[in-house]
Amino acid sequence: MRHIAVIGSGPAGYYTAEACQKQFGEECRVDILDRLPVPFGLIRSGVAPDHQSIKGVSRRYEKVALTDSVRFVGNVTIGADVSVEELRGLYDAVVLATGAPNDRPLDVPGAALPGVVGSAAFVGWYNGHPDFADLAPPLDGPGAVVIGNGNVALDVARILAKDESEFEGADIVAHALAELRGSGIETITILGRRGPHQIAMTPKELGELGELARAAPIVDSADLPPPDADAALDPGQRKSVGHLRAFAAGGADASKPIRIVFDFFAQPVAIEGEDRAERVLVERTRLDASGRAQGTGETYAIPASLVVSCIGYRTPPIEGVPYDDRAGRFANDEGRVLPGLYAVGWARRGPTGTIGTNRPDGFAIAEKIAADMPGDSGKPGRPGLDSLLAERGVDLVTFRDWQKIDTAEIAAARAGAPREKFTTIERMLDARTS
């Protein structure tokens, strides 16, 4: 029997568990540990609440979780309740599938001012993550700036711009919906250091901006390359740029009270304000021969009481685990970190790829575990962990417990919503017995 511990219950964690099942059959036991009492990681707290079809992938993970060989162990904090070193002593293999939940720092003067938040915090706020439920972002001013040219920036802009009726069927939490209802934001500016051909925005997400009830996307046609230059792009990117061209051709719809302005070739150099963010100082850029953005020295200010930085994520370091500070992930050689210790998903490669990218990643790690550990080591695995956690008084949460939490959240849903997420760990734990 091989005993495998996976730290993190997001897509990378469950795909790894599925891969280990197929690699070892009945001769393995996989424990998936998570700090929260609820599983599925960014599927629950990172995917936009109005993208329910994407969240449906969790049904696949549920099938894995309900097998005899896989167990969810929630409400267990690595470092506080059990260390990685202790897990390595208990299990044949330990797989770090912690993702990259921390924001990459915005390194400009004024980034610490109230009103400046990272996308992990802002997305966590409207998705009901316990760490960010009390964020209370300032929505009272007329201007918001979103820094970044990827899909997360689009998610943030779209959520800020939507009318309440457009959240029908979404699992946005009630406190965020209430605060958005009273928002005074009229202009959302999306800043990108480079141009339309360098965006990391997919066609579906861009197209959604053109369908909003009360917001119009605005692109300056002068920022767009000549149309024949699009031929060099891959089909998906070409379609995305096509949306930008359509936005530019359509101009601003004066009947819509909110504007979403794409400001290309623009980089933030400072955030200014007395006691809170009031404006973003922006420098105009140009692309050099290698395609990198270079400042031109021309600056201007954009009024903004809310600034959301969507410039990337980092994996938080864990004591005793080699870390690549520059890349913001665990140091590894194709997934191998130390003997018996592996990394998968964003914890291995950094925040790149889609949810589905984690599946082949998980299968590759399962093959490495099989190659490194061909036989039974005799380690205690699951019984050893249970004994250790019981000694320390840890109130672990099983997948059956999660199903009770799930049922309670569904029962608490407002009309038209699939669920009302509990935003505190205490409420989650209470739902097991309510």
Descriptive tags:
FAD/NAD(P)-binding domain, 2 domains, 21% strand, alpha/beta, 6-stranded parallel sheet, 434 residues, 31% helix, 6-stranded mixed sheet, Rossmann fold, single chain
Topology:
Elements: E1 2-7, H1 11-24, E2 28-33, H2 42-45, H3 52-55, H4 58-65, E3 70-73, H5 84-90, E4 93-96, E5 102-103, E6 116-118, H6 119-127, E7 143-147, H7 151-161, H8 174-181, E8 187-191, H9 203-209, E9 215-219, H10 235-250, E10 258-263, E11 266-272, E12 279-287, E13 293-303, E14 306-309, E15 313-314, E16 323-324, E17 329-330, E18 336-338, E19 341-343, H11 346-349, H12 358-372, H13 382-391, H14 399-411, H15 425-430
Parallel strand pairs: 1-2, 1-4, 2-3, 4-19, 6-14, 7-8, 7-14, 8-10, 9-10
Antiparallel strand pairs: 5-15, 11-12, 12-13, 16-17, 18-19
Helix pairs in contact: 1-4, 1-12, 7-9, 9-10
Question: What's the short version?
Answer:
With 434 residues, this protein is an alpha/beta fold. It is built from 15 helices and 19 strands. It folds into 2 domains: 2-101 and 315-430, 3-Layer(aba) Sandwich (Rossmann fold); 103-309, FAD/NAD(P)-binding domain (3-Layer(bba) Sandwich).
Q: What does this entry look like structurally?
A:
The chain has 15 helices and 19 strands. The chain has 434 residues and is α/β, with parallel strands linked by helices. It has two domains: 2-101 and 315-430, Rossmann fold (3-Layer(aba) Sandwich), CATH 3.40.50; 103-309, FAD/NAD(P)-binding domain (3-Layer(bba) Sandwich). Strand 11 and strand 12 (279-287) form a beta hairpin. It starts with a strand and ends with a helix.
